[in-house]
C-alpha cells in the first residue's frame, strides 16, 4: 500500500493518457487495415468478374 502513496496523480494522468492514446492508435490502425484489405479484396473480385476496366 505504501507504493501507491508514492505515485503522484500527475503520473497517473500522464501514463493513463499515454495508455489511452496507444490503445486508440492500435485500434485505429487495426480498423484501417481491415478496411483496406476488404476494399482490395472487392477490387480483385470485381476484376476477376470483368466488372472493372
Quick synopsis:
The protein has helices spanning 2-6, 9-49. It is mainly alpha-helical and 53 residues long.
Task: List key phrases describing it.
single chain; 53 residues; mainly alpha; rod-shaped
What does this protein look like?
- It is rod-shaped and about 70 Å long.
- The N and C termini lie far apart (68 Å).
- The model has no long low-confidence stretch (mean pLDDT 88).
- It contains two helices and no strands.
- It has helices spanning 2-6, 9-49.
- The chain has a domain at 20-48.
- With 53 residues, it is mainly α.
- 0% of the residues are buried.
> Which descriptor suits the 3D outline?
rod-shaped
Gap between N and C termini, in Å?
A: 68 Å
Radius of gyration: 22 Å
Output the helix-strand order.
HH
| Proportion of helical residues | over 70%
| Class based on secondary structure composition and strand pairing | mainly alpha
User: Largest beta sheet, briefly?
Assistant: none
Low-confidence stretches: none
Number of E-type strands: 0
Layout of strands and helices, then pairs:
Layout: H1 2-6, H2 9-49
Amino acid at each position: 500500500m505504501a507504493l501507491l502513496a508514492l505515485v503522484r496523480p500527475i503520473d497517473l494522468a500522464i501514463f493513463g493518457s499515454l495508455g489511452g492514446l496507444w490503445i486508440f492508435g492500435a485500434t485505429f490502425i487495426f480498423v484501417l487495415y481491415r478496411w483496406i484489405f476488404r476494399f482490395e479484396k472487392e477490387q480483385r473480385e470485381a476484376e476477376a468478374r470483368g466488372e472493372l476496366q
